[in-house]
Amino acid sequence: MSTDNRTSVMLVDDHQVMRDLLRDALENTGEFQVVAQAADGEEALKVAAESTPDVIVMDVIMPGMDGIDACREIIELLPDTRVLMLTASNEQDAIVRSIAAGATGYLQKYSGKEQLLTTLREVAEGEFRIPGNAARRLARAVRGPVGDVGVERLRELTDREVEILKLFAAGLSYQEIGDVREISALTVRNAVSGIQKKLGFRTRQQMVVWAIRAGVVDDGSV
User: Pick from 62, 87, 80, 84: which is nearest to 71 by CA?
Assistant: First the structure.
């Protein structure tokens, strides 16, 4: 953990150059402190246990244990640590497996610096964040039975709440949703919390996957 008010971050990538670039980008903001680094999944398990970071930024494809398997084991070991998968992979299967492993964010390496920082901030706060393009592939992959909650639970939401859920599950940030709805980002955040509580989900991650399966989000809306 960081010894000051900065968010402590661990970087996991098999390319030293990428880790150096990420470290500089994060620490130059003054918001983040890179407390540890690892070059593969197995090393990440050991180093994460020693450093207990707030957030781990993890590549998917690495030699030996990949980022998805490492994410799953780290979440079991450190349930309060958040994992943001930052990867060059755009495979549908990688997105689904990352979410199933417990990642609370998924972002591709070609994303801009500001998108990375915004996503990292939200993941550090415990939010579930995937961009629209990843949400679209996730929608195609997981569309199906909606489980115990049931589509009828949507009737408990107001039209406004359904629209906010749709935008949130499509990968829009609080600010982006606020711009669409002409309300503040804080109002959106409170609304999302209320929706989660109404639907009875423990995490926003579970809520988003359920919303996609329930057909709240369609391919044309993300």
Answer: 84
